[in-house]
Structure formats: structure tokens, C-alpha cells
Amino acid sequence: MRLFIAINLNEEIKDYLMEAIRELQWHAEKGNFTRRENLHLTLVFLGEVDTDRLGAVKSAMNRIHGAPFRLAVSGFGKFKRNGGDIHWAGVEKSEPLFSVQKQLSEELVKAGFSLEERAYSPHLTLGREIRLRDPSANIYASLSQVKKEMNVTRISLMKSERIKGILTYTEIFGRDLTNGED
Q1: Tens digit of pLDDT per residue, the chain (182 long)?
Q2: Rounded distance, CA 113 to CA 93, Å?
Q3: Which of the residues are catalytic?
């Protein structure tokens, strides 16, 4: 099964990101846009994992230490790609976020998982393979001065699958972050 560990977003942030996606759709001539239900912040992408390795992933998640923290969403950008760009909303860098992500990566590597080696770049994907009608348009102008925040109290192991042709993410395990010793 295809897995990743993520922070699921609250409704207020999803509303804000859906405004941005609607703007992006209006300006795009083509693209694959993220469905509201699939909006999340990836911490670690695992890819294809055998069912018998699920216990190792859960154990790695349970070994990290971290208290709840604030996540701030602010700004927009894109990763240039030949087949169309990936548009994203920015996530402000914070020590607690990077600590949780680093601990997860280290614990998963210790458990024998092979992870991407590039530096962690937190972002919220709005759409992929996006081609704009006017590439110079400032499509996020009305939203780019806004900053939305939420409390992160939980990390989730997510399964990615196609159900009736629709990409669907489902939480299969969650771990609460706590203020005390875990």
C-alpha cells in the first residue's frame, strides 16, 4: 500500500486553501487540482509499503517526542516542471515542525525504510501539472497577505489509493503529540 505521514489540516485552513485553488482553476488552462479532502502537510513520504511493515511505521511514529505546536500557512509559489507546474501554499518554518519531521525520518531509517534524501521543504500542494493562460498573472494577490494558523496536536499515517478512479487519502493510524514525556 502507498503511505505517507502527514499533518491533517483544520477546516479554516482548508477553506483558505480552497479559495486559492478556485483562483488557480480560474487562471489555469489545464491542471490537476487538489481535492479539499486531500489537503494535508506531508511530513514523510514512504511510498509502497508491505502490510507486514505497518507495525514498524507505527512504532517509529510512537517513538518521536514533541508537544503540540502552531502551524502557520502563508504565501504561495510553484515548482517549475516541464509537464506543468506544481502550485503550493507556503508553510512557515518552525523548530517544532522540523523536529517532528526529522525525528520521524530518523526513526523510519533506523527501522529500515528508504526515504528521499532531499531537504525537507514544507508546502501544501494546491495543484499539479498546472498551465496558466497568462503565466505572469498574480493569481494569489487577494490571498497572499493573509496568514492562517492552526494548532497541530496529531500526526497521521495516511494511505493513498484510487477509489472509483478518485485519489483518496485515508488515515490508518494517528499519534497525538503531548506536552509531557511520551
Answers
A1: 999 999 999 999 999 999 999 999 999 999 999 999 999 999 999 999 999 999 999 999 999 999 999 999 999 999 999 989 999 999 999 999 999 999 999 999 999 999 988 899 999 999 999 999 998 888 888 787 788 999 999 999 999 999 999 999 999 999 999 865 54
A2: 25
A3: 40, 123
Strands 2-8 and 154-163: antiparallel
- Give me 120's grid cell: 525537507
Residue extents of the structural domains in the chain: 2-176
The domain 2-176 is classified under which CATH number: 3.20.20.220, 3.90.1140.10, 1.20.58.100, 3.40.50.720? 3.90.1140.10
- Cα 49 to Cα 66: distance, rounded to the nearest angstrom: 25
Contact 76, 113 (CB under 8 A): no
Rounded Cα–Cα distance for residues 105 and 116 (Å):
9
The three cell numbers locating residue 33: 487540482
